[in-house]
Each structure stands twice: as C-alpha cells, then as structure tokens.
Amino acid sequence: MSSQAPTPSGTLSYEQAGVNYDLIDPLKISAQRAAAATAVHMATHGFSEVTASRGESAYVLDVGPFYLASIVECLGTKTLVADEMAQLTRKSYYDGIAQDTIAMAINDLITVGATPLVVQAYWAAGGSQWFEDRQRAQALVEGWKKACDTCQVAWGGGETPALAGIVESGRIDLAANCTGLINPKSRLSVGDRLGPGDAIVLLESSGIHANGLSLARKLVERLPQGYLTEVEPGLSYGEALLAPTMLYSPVTEGLWKAGITPHYCANITGHGWRKLLRHPGRFTYRIHTVPPVTPVLAFIQRHAQQDDREAYSTLNMGAGFAIFVPAQDAQKVVEVAQSCGIRAWVAGQVEEGDKQLLIEPLNIRFGDDDLQLR
Amino acid sequence: MSSQAPTPSGTLSYEQAGVNYDLIDPLKISAQRAAAATAVHMATHGFSEVTASRGESAYVLDVGPFYLASIVECLGTKTLVADEMAQLTRKSYYDGIAQDTIAMAINDLITVGATPLVVQAYWAAGGSQWFEDRQRAQALVEGWKKACDTCQVAWGGGETPALAGIVESGRIDLAANCTGLINPKSRLSVGDRLGPGDAIVLLESSGIHANGLSLARKLVERLPQGYLTEVEPGLSYGEALLAPTMLYSPVTEGLWKAGITPHYCANITGHGWRKLLRHPGRFTYRIHTVPPVTPVLAFIQRHAQQDDREAYSTLNMGAGFAIFVPAQDAQKVVEVAQSCGIRAWVAGQVEEGDKQLLIEPLNIRFGDDDLQLR
Description:
The structure is a homodimer.
Chain A: H1 21-36, E1 48-49, E2 59-62, E3 67-74, H2 78-89, H3 94-109, E4 115-125, H4 134-151, E5 154-159, E6 172-182, E7 199-204, H5 213-219, E8 230-232, E9 235-236, H6 237-241, H7 249-257, E10 264-267, E11 284-287, H8 295-303, H9 308-314, E12 319-325, H10 330-339, E13 344-351, E14 356-359, E15 364-367
Parallel strand pairs in A: 4-5, 11-14
Antiparallel strand pairs in A: 1-2, 2-3, 3-6, 4-6, 7-12, 7-13, 8-9, 10-12, 11-13, 14-15
C-alpha cells in the first residue's frame, strides 16, 4: 500500500499476514469517485453534503439546523481469536467482541464532532446453528447493550441473517452502523481548524483493539503455546488480544461539556500511528512523549521481530485516539479523559513544515508517502 | 416460525431449504429487549425515540425539527445465484445485485415515511482476491451508483473489508445501511393512522427480489438444466431470479409531492404476503384483486409444488410493496406509481374484524398466528 522501510529477515509484516491492499485500492478509488458524484442529489432535498467529510472517518450532511453524520464499520477478524480462545478456555468472549464492533463505528463517528445517537447491529452468521450456542449469543447481546449504555446511544435494531454459503459455517460477520448529529453545528470537526501550535493529545488504547488482527493471528504459529502463551504472568496472549476496544465517545462528549471543541481528531486504527497524518493539510506533527506500549503490543512487536518503525506503522502501540486542540486546552483534555477512566498524554504539537510525523523519542519519521487514504 | 397448513409430499418449504428461524428467534427476542432498554439514553441528548417504530421496518428518533430514521439491511444469498450464473454465462450480474442490496434498505426505510438521504455500502469479501475480477467489482460500483441516483440519495461511503476465514473464499457479504429524515414530521407513518376504510394499493415486484433465495437455489437441484432452464422462451431461471429488486422510494416521494401521506406501508419481503399483517392493530385486510404473478415466481411455485397458501406465505407473488391510504386517494397512488414506471393495483381494503388477511380470489386466509415478527 505504501512505501515502507526494508525490514529484517524473519519480520512478519501486515502484507505477509494476508491482506493485500493493492487489490482493493482500485475498487476503492472507483467507488469513491462514484460516491462523490451522488452528492448532487442533496440539493433535491434542500440539503448539501459537507464535502470535506469525504475522506474523513464519517460522512456528514448539512440538513439545516444541524449536521447529520453516519458510518458503517466492520469488526474484521477478531472473532476468529474469540472462537479459538473459546475452544481453549470454554469461556465466551463475545461481550468484549460486541464492544469492539461498536467501538469501530463510534470511535470513527466522533472524529467529525458528532454525538452518536443510534447504533444498528449487523450480525451475519454462517448458518442458523451459530445461534445455538446460547451463552455466546447472550454474551453478544449483553456486550452490545453495555457498549450502547457507555456511549449513551440507542440500539435501534439490526439484522441477524443466516448466510450459509457466504459466511463460513460456525463464524459470524459483525458490523455496526452509527448515526449521529453534530449539534450545535459549531462542533463540526473536518479539519479546517487545525493549525500550527495545536497540541496533540493521545488517549490510551486497551491493547490491539480491532486492527492488526491478521498479523496477530498469524503470529500464533510462532508461539510455543499458541494463544495460551503468556504475555505477562497470568495473562495469555489470547486474553490480552481480546481486551475490548476503548470507547472514546464519553471523552469527546465530556470535552464538549467542558467547553472544548477539538480542532481535529484521528482514530488510530488500521495504519497505526500513520493515522496521525490523516489530515489533508501540510503540517509537521512532532511527538515528544510516547505513551507506554500496551504489553500485548510489545509482545507482538517482539515476536514478529518488527522494528519500531514497522510496529508504529501498523499497530496503535498504546495510543488509540488522537485529539488536536489549542495548546492551552491540552491539559484539560487529559483531565477530561482521566475523569472518564482513560489515561491521556499531551504528546506533541502541530508545526509548520513538511507533511510528516516525527516520533522523536523513537527517532521515527513518517512522510506523506507513508499514508495514502484518499 | 409460524403454523402453516400441511403441504403435500414433494413440496419444498422455506424451512426445508435450510433456514431455521427457531434457532434465531430467542436471540432476536433477547436482543430486542436489550435494544428497547437503551431508549432512555435519548433523554440525555434532549431527544426521544418514536417507540412505535420498534417492530417497524426502520428505527425512528424524534430529534426536534424532524424525525431521524435509520436501518441496516443484508442482501442475503442472492449473490450465490449471481456467482453461479456468471460461471455459466460469463456475464457479471453485480450491477443488479447492487440495486438489490440498496433496495433492501431503502424499501424498508420508506415505510415509516422517511426520505432516504444517505446510503453506506458494506461489502465484506472472503479475501482480497474477490476484487481481482475488475469487471465484477466495477459492475458493483456502477449498479450501486445507479440505484443511489434513482433514489436520489448520497452514497456516503462504506467498508470493503477482506475477511478471509469469516466470509467464504470467492464470496461477498453485502449489506446497506440507510439514514433518512421524516420531514415534515407529519409524514411519520408508524401505524397510528391506519383504520377501517383504508384502501390497500399493491405495487408490482420485478420477480423474487431478494427474499426466498434459499428456496429458489434449493430448487435448482430439481431442474434438468439448472439455472439455464427456461422460465419462458429466451429467459433462463437464473436470469429471471436476478432481475433487480424494484426501488420504491420514487413512489413514496412522488406521493408526498402529490399531497398524499400513506396511513401505513409494508415492504413485502421475507414472509411474503403475511407482511400485510405487519401492523400491530386488529384489522381484517380483504384483498379483492390479486396482481399477476411474476413468471419466475409462478415457475418456483410450480416446481416447488407449493399450493397458493404456501407460495403467498413465502414469496411476494408479484406484489413488492403495499401502501395503505384513504380510499379516495387509492387511484391517485396507482397513477403516481405508474408515472414512476411501476404498475400498481387497488387490491383491497382494511376492515374492522379479526386480525386476518383474506385473499379472496385465491380463497386464502392468514390469521394472527401466521406472522410473529415482534
């Protein structure tokens, strides 16, 4: 997908783990062009799209009194870890899996300044049999409900199709869609306010979240006890991977109540810290403080024999969400996050200069070529 | 799922075709209860849910100046027919498949009186390889765009995950989510206005649409030439099945412009004509006029050896959408539909009496026990 530094032999990269973005990207580009061309229809309804939201994490419409934001997000392959671990431990991990799925949608939706309001569940099973395991199904329901409670969203409904022949037998394809409002409209955050002098606040992750799982699963082959290999005493690799993704909407809502409107937000997901380069503008992002690396991520980096550059280009490495605010608000963001039970660090600042991310404590530089999302 | 009349030996029912609702239903009920309990969160945001929309086809929130409606819908297994036919004919059917997927969401969303505004695409492939077939991928993009154009919605974005290990290799799991507004609020249609004397207008279907495909695919085993068996001269069974689902939002939008607000709407999908019993009230629905049966549906009924009762309880049998309006508006509804290129019939009326659907020309009665959706 993007140019990467050569990596030592024995290193396990994301592409080696089986995801080939080169094949997907032409379709994505074609789809993005076609999608952009549909914006004209909004005039028919007396509305307009917020064009700057194309390329951002959620799509935004101007519907008059407020903005409307919506998104669909797939969990990915984290359920495969849950299924393997359930075989090994006889526990169900689908309460956490439910939170992961909702987090994928919620944490993206809030980047544009939206308050999430409604979540819809998409649970496509490989056959009716999936639902025979009542413990697992109930865990999915309860975890979904609990995540909705945390984010104060209404669970509007959803789909539970049985798709034998499409979804593999015994598996389930999970996704969430989320709709929210940007209200008042001054909360809109699609990048126009970001500028030099802004501080970068990083919020802690709980672990791998739901990105990098192909790599994490591939790695199991290298571990003597597989998923039961201990990451730290008493914590297996499998359990550590299954720590549910942090839900960050309590923080963004808390910021609003505290009178802080972020200049920009980035959900640190599929491209690791390269997501800090997401904003379309040309700025230098200088990081002076790197949050502690979550043990499971340090474990993955070590066993995959990745250098720091490779690890930070793929995994969240302990930082799940970035909030860009005026420097004078940065400490307050940390406090609001902490009041939500989420650790946060004033990690760096935005500067004039080439488009690049400088992680100074690790001597890493990512340039414009390292992230091509649009 | 529901009590059904005994069927003659040799009959192929929906349950025999491999979908067991008994296994799914306890989960659905548990999920519905948990979902309903999340409505309390809306007060935090100064909003409220339209509780009557639970159990309807789309979820509705009251956000002040208008209502917000949202939904996610899965296509189901129609892609398996497209994939088989592509092997046989070297054509791609994914433009029609795209329309089917969008129709599943749009045709449900409009039942509550919403104007669809944004569609998100959920295209989960069994691996990056799915996207290697550029013709197929491009057809999917173009069909999606065209359906958005027909419905005048913005294609907001979506997800194109590669889910090896969850989605079967070479397959794709397709879903759409749709968000819309009920604006002005007087367009809300969640059933409170339906009453005796209302007319039932049925809109034509194009064929099987996207429900009943498990049965239709199972049937292929009985056909001498499989999907290439002719339904009528020059039209193969496979091609006939793949006729894209009608998009009905031009009709509901046309009605609004013509000054007609339906008292209720029903999208005729998974339970065939039993969906006409969807409204929670106790009314008798008397049908005096049955639309012509689409050839492919007549073919399925004949080869599956289903009697009329079984066929109308599973398939749309030529009627894809029902609109309930005051009797004096009925003929106008037919005209608006026809101006959109969709045939329609004033097919019956709502009466006081037991909850039942009487299809008089066919001597069929469905009672309250025949549809348990809530």
